[in-house]
Amino acid sequence: MNKAPTNLPASVRQRLLNLASQSKQDFGLLLTKYALERLLYRLSVSKHRDAFVLKGALLFQLWTSEPYRPTRDLDLLGQGDGSAERYRKIFT
After folding, report:
1. Largest Cα–Cα distance in the chain?
2. Is the pLDDT of residue 33 over 80?
3. Rounded mean pLDDT of the chain?
4. Which residue from 18, 52, 60, 86 has the least number of CB within 10 angstroms?
5. Exposed (0-12), middle (13-18) or buried (19+): which is 58, by Cβ within 10 Å?
6. Model pLDDT for residues 48-77, shown as the tens digit of each residue
């Protein structure tokens, strides 16, 4: 049985570095993709999951096996109150 890593951020970084090397991907793009996917995961398990719709290039990557283009951002369409204070509460 594997024990939990003592330094989780370093462990994740090393696994991403290994994956980037093996798949010949740019580490920066892979790291960004990981961060965006983790944000989407956290949003999906929150009470706010139905208040947002994913759109843009990241959505194309989910639809096809080949990425439409590398993306470094996340496009979400929010529903309801669009105030900065509401989004600050949701994402902090």
Report:
1. 47
2. yes
3. 89
4. 18
5. buried
6. 999 999 998 888 777 777 655 677 889 999
Q: How many CB atoms lie within 10 A of CB 21?
A: 10
Q: Which helix (H) or strand (E) holds 90?
A: helix 84-91
Token readout for 54 is: 């994913």
Are the CB atoms for 34 and 71 separated by under 8 Å?
no
Compute the distance between CA of residue 59 and CA of residue 77 in angstroms, rounded to an integer. 12
Q: Does residue 2 fall inside a structural domain?
A: no
- Beta-carbon count within 10 A of 83 CB: 9
Number of structural domains in the chain: 1
Tokens of 62: 């989910």
